[in-house]
Amino acid sequence: MKYTHHNNELNIKHIGKEVFLKGWAAKVRNLGGLIFIDLRDRFGITQLLIKPGNPFYEIALKVRNEFVLEAKGIVIERESKNSTILTGEVEVEVSELTILSVAENPPIIVSNDTDALEDTRLKYRYLDLRRPVMQNFMIKRHEITQAIRSVLVEEGFYEMETPILGKSTPEGARDYLVPSRLYPGHFYALPQSPQIYKQLFMVAGFEKYFQIARCFRDEDLRADRQPEFTQVDIEASFVDMNDVQAIVEKVLVKTFKKVLNVDVKAPFLKMSFQESMEKYGNDKPDMRYEMLISDYTNFFKGIDLPLFNNKEQVRGIILEQGLVTRKRLDQLSELVKKNHGDALAFIKLSEGQFSGSIVKYLDENQLKGLNLKEGNTLFLVPGQFENVSSALSALRIELANEFKLIPENQFKFLWVTDWPLLEYSEEEKRFYAKHHPFTAPVDPEALRKDPKHAMAKAYDVVLNGYEIGGGSIRIHNQDVQKLMFDTLGLTKKDIEERFGFFVDALKYGTPPHGGLALGLDRVVMLMTNTQNIKDVVAFPKTQSAKDTMMQAPSTVDLVQLDELGIKVGK
């Protein structure tokens, strides 16, 4: 028989009605002969009641947690109501009960309050996903994905697919390689993104493309990164940077409204890469709180302070209120050093008195010249610009979390623009593309004459301190693309082997085009207010890139390796 209701639907209006329910036994209680079963499905919980003398009483005695059941009965009013669940005013007095599937004692508690370690949760992910909080993450992911898709379709974009088995073009993160059986010694690569394919769609004349694309990068993992991930890939022809940004803003504004009923204001604030690094120490600033980085280099010039002598810069942040103990200062110093800072100094003004690690080097007028207010603590880091930025960025975030300076339930969007086109490796004595080698320069002549200072038509969209998307206007002129390859030090052979087909495509009339890819996993993580990206990925990998549920990666039969012409060294 088809069930009549989900387990979140019954209420006082249904009293006296016969219903038929299905689900899992979330909890079983035997109270003085009365058996109560909390029946759970993906919508909620309904309490079942089985009294002694019921012909199905003996079956009810056998039920344990996570048994799969179907039950028929009459809705009655509960004597002790439960306001924490939607069906808490009623229960179902069972007239028929069937065990559809038995279950062993589960290795994790299937409830929101599970105490299982993350490794155990990932090993038994199918049980972890039964937990209502996890199901909410997955359902919200579905809603977010569908909202994004509907906006893009409304805007005239075509959803199109690109291959998973492609060509290795090593320029950035490491590729995941797939050996070919038919062509021994040759390999496919899993896509780091559909970058070249989506540009070829523009060459082909489709003008507006999007894809919910699976991407793969063999790189060291962080808390907000997975080796395989999903991005919302968007590309359009005959657009400039403002056009692409307007499209993405429309997608995000409508998605937040539809899924969370949150009004996001557009257009988003814009900030240059340089300003972001100077004020926030990183290229993905969290705009929900201040505590900006200030430059104290000139202030300390002429002051004989050993810690700061011969340093390129001295920059700092002010914690307006908050007690930092000596032990905590030592920990913060280690945090600064871990993030490439040379050292951490501090000055505090409390009860009208200055104290701190460098106070003895400053006279009264110099201390007053810092313009500190009562209760302020100034943290200072000396060194080279990038290293100081990295250290102060980490310190700023640490202090904001520790002293609860970050408002909850706020969403602050930002475009980071005016990016450098290239970055130079002193070790390899060559340039690398800051984004990718198909990003258009603002001025091709600047790329030719002064590549170190060439700027890119690139832009990142940032939300609450996370980069949730990045994109650029692409190179559509074959001469400019050749100049870019030449600047990156690629030989004619390199270009032919890696990008020959793409270079050929540019010869046949390529429209100006550009786009952006949104990191769907990060967007869902932020919209569902979780700090762990694994919560919003159905079957994630561990921090060491393992699938503990499937026991992958794993060894394979020698026969399989022989077919591929591969030998594995010890």
Summarize the structure.
The chain has 16 helices and 24 strands.
Please provide a written account of the structure.
There is one protein chain. With 570 residues, the protein is α+β, with helices and mostly antiparallel strands. The protein has three domains: 12-101, OB fold (Dihydrolipoamide Acetyltransferase, E2P), CATH 2.40.50.140; 134-271 and 413-537, BirA Bifunctional Protein, domain 2; 289-402, 2-Layer Sandwich (Gyrase A, domain 2). Helices cover 28% and strands 25% of the residues. It is built from 16 helices and 24 strands. The protein has helices spanning 57-62, 118-123, 125-128, 132-154, 195-203, 241-260, 273-280, 297-300, 326-338, 364-368, 385-402, 444-449, 478-487, 492-506, 520-527, 558-564, and strands at residues 18-31, 34-40, 45-50, 68-77, 90-101, 158-159, 177-179, 187-189, 208-216, 228-237, 269-272, 294-295, 313-319, 345-350, 353-356, 377-383, 413-417, 419-420, 422-425, 430-433, 455-456, 458-463, 466-473, 513-519. An eight-stranded mixed β-sheet has the order 6-9-10-24-23-22-17-11, with helices on both faces. Strands 1-2-3-5-4 form a five-stranded mixed barrel. Strand 14 (345-350) and strand 15 (353-356) form a beta hairpin. Helix 4 crosses helix 6 (241-260), helix 4 crosses helix 15 and helix 9 (326-338) packs across helix 11 (385-402). The chain is globular and about 90 Å long. It starts with 17 loop residues before the first strand and ends in a 6-residue tail after the last helix. The mean pLDDT is 95.
